[in-house]
Amino acid sequence: MKKLTAAITGIQGYVPDYVLNNEELSRIVDTSDEWITSRTGIKERRILKDGASSDMATIAVQKLLEKKNIDPLEIDLVICATVTPDYTFPATSNVICDKVGMKNAWGYDLIAACSGFIYALSTGSQFIETGKYKKVLVIGVDKMSSILDYEDRTTCVIFGDGAGVALLEPNEEGLGVQDFILRADGAGRHYLIQPAGGSSQPATHQTVDERLHFVKQEGKQVFKFAVTNMAEVSAEIMEKNNLTSEDVDWLVPHQANLRIIDATAERMGLGKEKVMINIQKYGNTTAGTLPLCLWDYESQLKKGDTLILSAFGGGFTWGSVYLKWAYNS
Ligand code: UT7
Question: What's the 35 CA to ligand 1 centre distance in angstroms?
């Protein structure tokens, strides 16, 4: 029997209609379009006014299944990467399965913050490679606006809401996920965290008064670790697989900061034309950034293209995935 690889055979994104631009944000907190653009590259982000993470993911999944002409009952497994689940439990993956009617699927949520999609893609691919499953959905979704403090200019300008989903299916041509390097260092947890609401600090009047249910970030520290580790792990996966910069067709980087993306591309020796960038219109959608990039660039991707996906996020978590694109659209 031929060796099976796990290929992405379909991609779909969803972003909410409401556009929150830098100018509107500068009327909410003490900031400016100039500061946000020059420090991050973000011009606007999408905000989900009503609904939960599962609602964005449900629309993305429904559109993907329609596009691929797949019955929801054919889906075996749904992995949902998110730090903004609908509830602490049950899992958002269970909610999405119910809303879409994926009654034969089981699933789970995966917390790896901005690295959520590459963690989920790597784990999801294992179920395909073993031959156990035929159709696995890997979702990256976050409603960051639900945990942002719109009185904290250091965080609220960076993030946005959005969802993306990839369909994984077995491939016998050697396309799809080739390799991955995943890393974590929990010692970094204090630098990027939602302090309250878990078992460490359950919700009380005091945690609410102290605004501890919102994202807290020490931006400079996170930047330092992100810029080094995302660049290093991207170069490492190239070396490990004997890839030169000519071999790589696309870098698909987590969209946290244009300066981090540029440093990663430079370390890999890639020109700007090979780098997927959409941070200017969506900001940092946490687990949503990578599938939203693939969705935006889908029409430019060709069967056999070599992609390196890279991310860094809260945890700390980081890593890269080496992928061969499996279809022409
Ligand atoms: O995706 C998960 C991982 N997260 C990341 O990768 C994010 C990594 N960090 C970053 O991208 C950057 O650190 C930020 C974009 C968050 C901040 O940029 P920075 O260049 O590191 O700025 P800073 O935190 O050093 O702040 C510089 C100045 C400060 O003022 P003073 O102390 O120099 O007077 C801040 O108070 O900019 C001020 N500042 C702002 N000014 C206007 C901070 N936020 C804002 C703002 N508007 N929104």
Answer: 9
Q: Is the pTM of this model over 0.85?
A: yes
Instruction: Indicate whether residue 25 lines ligand 1 (CB < 6 A).
Output: no
The residue whose CA has the least distance to atom 13 of ligand 1 is 219
- 223 touches ligand 1 (CB under 6 Å): yes
Contact 278, 45 (CB under 8 A): no
CB 168 within 8 Å of CB 136 = yes
Q: Is 77 helix (H, G, I), strand (E, B) or coil?
A: strand
* Contact criterion met (CB below 8 Å) for 13 and 291: yes
- Does 51 contact ligand 1 (Cβ within 6 A)? no
Catalytic status, residue 213: no
| 178-324: CATH, from 3.40.50.2300, 3.40.640.10, 1.10.10.10, 3.40.47.10 | 3.40.47.10
DSSP 53: H
CA distance 31 to 153: 7
Per residue in 90-114, pLDDT tens? 999 999 999 999 999 999 999 999 9
Its CATH architecture, for the domain 5-176, is 3-Layer(aba) Sandwich (3.40)
Please tell me if the CB atom of residue 114 comes closer than 6 angstroms to any atom of ligand 1.
Answer: yes
DSSP-assigned states of every residue in 178-202: EEEEEEE-GGGGGGEE--SSSSSS-
Per residue in 290-307, pLDDT tens? 999 999 999 999 999 999
Ranges of CATH 3.40.47.10 domains, the chain: 5-176, 178-324
Q: Could you read off the pLDDT of 223-240 as tens digits, one per residue?
A: 999 999 999 999 999 999
Going by alpha carbons, the residue nearest to atom 38 of ligand 1 is 154
Share above pLDDT 70 across residues of the chain, in percent, rounded to a whole number: 100
In terms of Cα–Cα distance, which of 120, 158, 147 is closest to 311? 120
Nearest Cα neighbor of 141 from 125, 165, 158, 159 is: 165
